[in-house]
Amino acid sequence: MAVDERWASVDGYEGIYEVSDLGRIRSIERLVASRWGTLTKAVSGVVKTPRQQREGYLYVHLYKDGKARKRYIHRLVAKAFVLNPGDLPQVNHMDGDKTNNAHFNLEWVTGKGNCEHAIRNRLYEPARGEQSGHAKLSEDDVLEIRRSVACGELHREAALRFGVGRKAVTKIVSRQRWSHVA
């Protein structure tokens, strides 16, 4: 069964680009004046190949008046095909797949709602341990603290040796901190 794909003008790029409800972007066949305005040439319409950002979102560069602008495909689709009666600011991928930009997979949400969806569906994992920018210890340090305290070293001594507070050592040993380290 073939799926009917609907197309709509891209807001701000009418007559130049269109977006589909399935998440594709195409340029429209048109006549374009040269940079100097002396010649006019025909430009054929093509479906643009999206690029993927490091965080996983797909985007394209749209050109107008000699300037390129980066546009995220999910936002273009949502603006054209997803109702936003509450004038909400962010677009959420309901299935968590940032490359699935079909209109039925997108919804308008608040920033808080977007974060809650990501946490609820395990799409976001906060930085832990050494991955945190504030970590003073390595996983090896944590294992050494636990081993040395188990062998009789005082929390205060381990704290001095590793340059952390005594309470930090207590929380490491009781697994209130660094619980992910075996």
Terminal residue distance: 52 Å
Q: Tell me the domain tally.
A: 2
CATH class categorisation of the largest domain: Alpha Beta
Write down how many β-strands occur, each being a DSSP E stretch of 2 or more residues.
10
Structural class: alpha+beta
- The average pLDDT is 92
**Largest sheet: spatial strand order:** 1-2-3
- From the alpha carbons, calculate the radius of gyration and give it in angstroms: 26 Å
- Which fold name is given in CATH as the topology of the largest domain? Homing Intron 3 (I-Ppo) Encoded Endonuclease, Chain A
CATH architecture assignment name of the largest domain: Alpha-Beta Complex
Shape: elongated
How many H/I helical runs? 5
What kind of sheet is the major sheet?
3 strands, antiparallel
Helix content estimate:
25-40%
**What's the helix-strand series?**
EEEEEEEEHEEHHHH
Percentage beta strand? 15-25%
Contiguous runs where pLDDT drops below 50 for at least 5 residues: none
